[in-house]
Amino acid sequence: MTAQFPRTMIWPILALAPCLWAQQTNSCANLLNFKAPGVEITKAAPIAAGSTEPIPFAPAGQSLVLPAYCRVEGVINRRAGVGEEEFGIHFALAIPDQWNGDFLMQGGGGGNGIVYPPLGLTASGDTPALMRGYAVVSTDTGHKSHDGAFDFGFMKDQQAYLDFAYQANVQVAAVSKKILAQHYGKSAAFSYFAGCSTGGREGMVLSQRYPTEFDGIIVGDPAMRTGLSNLAIGEWMPAAFNQIAPKDANGKPMIEEAITDSDRKLVMDALMKQCDAKDGVADGMIFDPLACDFDPQVLACKDAENESCLAPNKVAAIKKAFGSPRTSRGIQVYPGFLYDSGIAATTGIRGILVPGPGIFGPAPAATEVDVDTEAINDSQPLVDSMSTNLSTFAGHGGKLIFYHGDSDPWFSPLDTFNYYKDMAAANSGLEAISSWSQFYFIPGMSHCGGGPALDQFDLLNALSNWVEKGVAPKSVIATGKAFPGRSRPLCPYPKHAQYKGQGNTEDANNFECR
């Protein structure tokens, strides 16, 4: 039913509306006068409700309808650096007209260098943070990308590298909070951070180096040891597959032909037969990854190779690739990867069983890797985020949620999981940290999304309820385009989603965390 207002009430409302809009517009424009050391405000403009914004990384034509907000853009510490290139920490802050009182910083991706729209999309389900009333900020962390999302040329400048590694985000957060206080006349009640990949690493860095800056942090698929993960996926895996790949006329391995479509089908059929139903239902998803005991060795041909088995050298190559780099003494320097439902993905980010060109270009042609030397060279102490003493973060009431796609082919979910276990050991054990930190495996999910997965889930709401109401998440419902109509609970470690044994297997209500 449409509400009916007395005619005498309509005219005052209509007369007042332009005044309210003018006040909001002026208030937004006044932020051009914001002053802080080293800070330049370059834009402060109201964005009308109903405006649209393309969704980053989504197919062309997909966009979001935005609420009314004030968009503030600026730069911190503008300067000339190496080669007289201009550097500075650029940021964009979305200040909603209908504010919920909280602040969210969204993490970056790749090599950063791009100020993405401040929307708050990470782990927010179907409703980005800005649409919920959060003030949201994004930043390029101190440099501009000149060659796409993986341009690391800025690292030649020491300060730019330091900003990217750990200094920029905390500066942007501090400036943003001051802007919000000036605009609204009060400080943000709670501060959150959510990021995936490089953004996940940034979240870990903030919890470790600036433990009182944020009340809640979401860490997804973190690029926490990029030197060693690049060694695994950029050198070790290609070398393993090059050893079995057919050679071209010049003797160069044709890595794309190392594993055929029929090989992949054999592996995936055997894997799903072994591990799919361990959670109570065979549904194309492995919800108990740590219980998956699949070994490709079961597929090795005992006699001549045929359609029902794999040549022993192919089995060895697959096991070597998934096992990750080892030194000459057999010491593993980076965790292996999970056997999961998305490892044979050929669309989006390719799965590990689809070898080919890497993130940064053509696959190497080498068949051997000097792990002893490479592992030492690939340590990056400024950007690696491995510190486990989070006593101050936990002590001030901070909450920290990790999640990782089980089919992530770029960063091993077991590396994040191992960090979580090490962090627990350093902070009185798993039971103790469960009062302020959780870890979620995301079955089938590739890097930060995609794959045969339920990759839409609202950890932001779970986190805010935990921080603001003291209600720890027991599970989070996940859905996804890969399985229309299906829902499942995501369960914090050590639990996983298990079918109760009756009811519709597409409905999360018929599963429990066990």
Summarize the structure.
The protein has helices spanning 7-29, 158-184, 198-209, 226-242, 261-275, 312-323, 371-377, 391-395, 413-426, 430-433, 459-469, and strands at 39-47, 52-54, 63-65, 69-80, 86-96, 102-106, 135-139, 190-196, 216-220, 399-405, 437-442, 456-457, 476-479, 488-490, 497-499, 511-513.
The succession of helices and strands, N to C, reads HEEEEEEEHEHEHHHHHEHHEEHEEEE
What is the domain tally? 2
Distance between the termini: 45 Å
Percent helix among the residues?
A: 25-40%
- Structural class of the secondary structure composition? alpha/beta
List low-pLDDT spans: 1-22
Radius of gyration: 25 Å
Question: Helical stretch count?
Answer: 11
- Mean pLDDT across all amino acids: 93
Into which percentage range does the β-strand content fall? 15-25%
Report the count of strand segments.
16
Q: Output the CATH homologous superfamily of the largest domain.
A: Alpha/Beta hydrolase fold, catalytic domain
CATH class of the largest domain: Alpha Beta
Q: Tell the overall outline.
A: globular
CATH topology of the largest domain: Rossmann fold
| CATH second-level architecture of the largest domain | 3-Layer(aba) Sandwich
Strand order of the largest sheet: 1-4-5-7-6-8-9-10-11
Q: Mind describing the biggest β-sheet? A: 9 strands, mixed
Walkthrough of the structure:
By secondary structure, the protein is of the alpha/beta class. It has two domains: 23-225 and 381-513, 3-Layer(aba) Sandwich (Rossmann fold), CATH 3.40.50.1820; 228-377, no CATH class. Helices cover 29% and strands 17% of the residues. It has a nine-stranded mixed beta sheet, with helices on both faces. A three-stranded antiparallel beta sheet has the order 12-13-14, with no helix packed on it. The radius of gyration is 25 Å and the shape is globular.
